From TrEMBL:
Protein name, UniProt field: 4-amino-4-deoxy-L-arabinose transferase
Keywords for the protein's UniProt record, in alphabetical order: Membrane, Transmembrane, Transmembrane helix
Domain of life: Bacteria
Parts of the chain that traverse the membrane: 113-132, 144-164, 170-189, 196-213, 219-236, 243-265, 362-379, 386-406, 418-435, 447-467
Length: 505
């Protein structure tokens, strides 16, 4: 066995360009997720919901929460019992730390968002930095600048910044899925580059897909299908030698799926029920149940007429996710033109709700998009493992583009195929960059630096605005007093005894 020795000075110097921006980024994420930088002007909505759910499960063995905790974001049975319908994966943070923290007094939401956003960004950094030098046999100085630029791109001009910018209820499952998808991409690239066998990666890929299922379920079907296809590929290559790994991988997938069905049964009384409706039924949207949303309104009608996911929404949603930008003054015609194109693409698909901040991916992540475009024609994209994994990641993105709401956090759901293609693009660019004459390399470096700076500027400005989203002084997220809750319960026809139970603290 080789003795463990301290890293040499040369190794530390080579590591510094990648490590220093990562440390700076992790610190920035902590300030954002902790509400220190860009501090919200009012408390954020739902930061205690996962803490209270953990306490309800551990202390009372129940999945429901009082309406005064869930408010309009809960989904309700006809007797007023409220359930959280979001993914339950953030409970992992509570399982790890709940024994040491009084969750009735302290929320772990900020810590959880920081942890998962940082882990996901670190995994994307490892993935992209690992392929940057492939075939890039060039000077140490040029490699150092390239690694520095890549680290800044990932940590200060990447999606993790927006994940960490807000720790309201919606962002904990988003952060978990972001980290899980980054881990899946890292595994796929490691297999494609020969650093990890497919057999060794399969159970881990299944764990990642299962975690996504319990965080952002709409992203999971494509990933499950991809993992099953990779099991088939491994069996075709190794025949009987791959049977044990195949069985373990499929068992992990089946376990994750069975757990979701059990959770649905425990919460909603139906293993196949995932969410409520805008009509009288066994499970209803909180906005409908408490009278906050008219079932004849445009959003409810869009769900009714076009379905929750419709492929006809895809062109308009893709365009607006890429290019939306709200400008005033002399630049207002630019925004008006973007809006007109969106309306033209939308056609007759009904209402598509647009939520701010309105910043398209073309401005947030321009270099990511450029690298992904290069990756479309890269040889590594045609590697069977990458091709299958890319298909699984892309399926979730396409599904998200078919949804009748466009909002900033949904862009993070699309990072999987974007980042994986960017890794393929870097593999393709490495030899080309290494062969460039010094003068041309300098020009390419300046262009890359400009795109990174543009992305960082838009990302920080958007994070500043996004930190003020989902505040409890917004009408839809405001707290309910005891008297107000009792009045609402009576208006729903509940007697005094039931109203008192529903409106408990």
């Amino acid at each position: 066995m080789r003795p463990i020795t301290a890293p040499s000075r040369a190794a530390l110097v080579a590591l510094a360009p990648a490590l220093l921006p990562a440390l700076l980024g992790a610190g920035l994420f902590a300030l954002l997720a902790g509400g220190v930088l860009f501090a919200p002007q009012a408390p954020l909505f739902g930061t205690d919901i996962y803490d209270r759910l953990y306490l309800a499960l551990v202390g009372e063995g129940r999945f429901d929460l009082p309406p005064r905790v869930l408010r309009l974001e809960g989904h309700y049975t006809p007797d007023g019992t409220g359930y959280l319908y979001h993914g339950l994966a953030p409970l992992l943070t509570r399982l790890a730390a709940g024994w040491a923290v009084d969750l009735s007094r302290v929320s772990l939401a900020g810590v959880s968002v920081w942890l998962w956003a940082g882990l996901g960004t670190a995994l994307w950094h490892l993935t992209l930095d690992g392929v940057l030098g492939q075939g890039m046999a060039t000077s140490r100085r040029r490699r150092g600048w390239a690694r520095l630029g890549l680290a800044v791109l990932v940590w200060l001009a990447g999606p993790g910044l927006l994940v960490a910018a807000n720790h309201a209820l919606f962002h904990e499952p988003l952060a978990v899925a972001y980290a899980a998808v980054a881990g899946i991409a890292w595994l796929l690239v490691a297999v494609a580059r020969g650093r990890l066998s497919l057999g060794a990666a399969l159970p881990l890929l299944a764990l990642g897909a299962g975690l996504v299922l319990h965080a952002r379920p709409h992203l999971a079907p494509g990933l499950f299908a991809a993992v099953v296809a990779l099991v088939g590929l491994d069996l075709w290559r190794r025949r009987r030698a791959g049977l044990a790994v195949a069985a373990l991988t499929l068992l992990v997938l089946a376990g994750a799926g069975a757990l979701l069905l059990w959770l649905n049964l425990a919460r909603f009384g139906d293993p196949w029920l995932m969410h409520g409706s805008f009509a009288p039924s066994g499970l209803q949207y909180g906005t409908y149940f408490w009278g906050g949303e008219d079932p004849a309104g445009p959003r409810a009608q869009a769900f009714e007429a076009e379905g929750r996911f419709s492929p006809w929404r895809l062109p308009a949603n893709l365009f607006i996710h890429l290019f939306d930008l709200r400008l005033g003054g002399p630049l207002a015609p630019v925004s008006e033109a973007i809006g007109a194109i969106f309306e033209g693409l939308k056609g007759g698909v009904g209402e598509i709700r647009l939520d701010g901040p309105w910043t398209g991916m073309a401005y947030l992540w321009p270099l990511w998009l450029l690298l992904a475009g290069v990756g479309l024609g890269a040889a590594m994209t045609r590697h069977p493992v990458i091709l299958i994994g890319l298909g699984g990641l892309l399926a979730g993105t396409l599904l998200m583009l078919c949804y009748p709401t466009v909002t900033l956090r949904y862009k993070v759901d699309m990072v999987g195929p974007l980042g994986l293609l960017a890794a393929c693009g870097l593999v393709r660019l490495g030899p080309w960059l290494a062969a460039l004459p010094a003068r041309r390399a300098a020009r390419v470096g300046r262009l890359g630096g400009l795109l990174i700076a543009l992305g960082a500027l838009f990302s920080l400005a958007t994070a500043h605005d996004y930190a003020q989203a989902f505040l409890t002084d917004w009408q839809v997220f405001r707290p309910w007093s005891l008297g107000e809750c009792l009045d609402m319960a009576r208006a729903r026809g509940f007697d005094e005894a039931r109203a008192a139970v529903l409106c408990r603290p």
